[in-house]
């Protein structure tokens, strides 16, 4: 599973909290509005210690072209709620998308810099499209 939905995470977290197992866990998620409210606190109560966000780009135009369904304006509130709950946030982004403008590439880095106090770990790599045959020969 690439990214877990907030509703599934909530059910999982509730079940883990009730189980008393004391497990710590992490998940890959999208920057979804439901994570800007009380949900991160409930996730932490269920043992969540980190969430990895594929924010992809600091450019809303690029996100829209990718059909990510993410509104970057909501990201700071989401990351603040996650931080306040005591959950680490990993940010994963890319540059060099087809049609990406230089200022959009810079916005991907700028997004991380502007919100540095809200994430724990970040990575940005080049977006590559390649054939499976070539990748197997690397």
Task: Give me the secondary-structure topology.
Elements: H1 6-19, E1 25-29, H2 39-45, E2 48-56, H3 60-65, H4 75-84, E3 88-95, H5 102-114, E4 121-126, H6 132-136
Parallel strand pairs: 1-2, 2-3, 3-4
Helix pairs in contact: 1-2
Account of the 3D structure:
The protein is an alpha/beta fold and 138 residues long. Helices cover 40% and strands 20% of the residues. The chain contains six helices and four strands. It has a four-stranded parallel sheet. Helix 1 (6-19) runs parallel beside helix 2 (39-45). The longest helix has 14 residues, at 6-19. It is globular and about 50 Å long. It starts with 5 loop residues before the first helix and ends with a helix.
Which descriptors apply to this entry?
138 residues; alpha/beta; globular; four-stranded parallel sheet; 20% strand
Quick structural summary:
This protein has 138 residues and is an alpha/beta fold.
- Choose one word for the global shape: globular
List segments where confidence is low: pLDDT < 50 over at least 5 consecutive residues.
none
Describe the largest sheet: 4 strands, parallel
Question: How many DSSP E strands?
Answer: 4
Counting helices, strands and paired strands, the structural category is alpha/beta
Task: Look at the structure and give the mean pLDDT.
Answer: 91
SSE run: HEHEHHEHEH
> Biggest sheet, strands in spatial order?
1-2-3-4
How widely separated are the two ends? 26 Å
Q: Determine Rg (CA atoms, Å).
A: 16 Å
Strand content: 15-25%
SS element count, helices: 6
What percent of residues adopt helix (DSSP H or I)?
Answer: 25-40%
């Amino acid at each position: 599973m690439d990214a877990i939905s907030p509703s599934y995470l909530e059910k999982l977290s509730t079940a883990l909290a009730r189980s008393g197992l004391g497990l710590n866990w992490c998940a890959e998620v999208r920057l979804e509005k439901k994570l800007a409210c009380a949900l991160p606190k409930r996730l932490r109560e269920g043992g969540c210690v980190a969430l990895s966000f594929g924010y992809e780009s600091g450019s809303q135009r690029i996100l829209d072209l990718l059909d990510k369904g993410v509104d970057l304006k909501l990201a700071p509130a989401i990351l603040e709620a996650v931080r306040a709950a005591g959950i680490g946030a990993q940010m994963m982004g890319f540059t060099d998308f087809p049609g990406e403008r230089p200022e959009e590439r810079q916005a991907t880095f700028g997004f991380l810099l502007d919100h540095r106090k809200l994430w724990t770990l970040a990575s940005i790599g080049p977006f590559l499209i390649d054939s499976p045959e070539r990748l197997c020969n690397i």
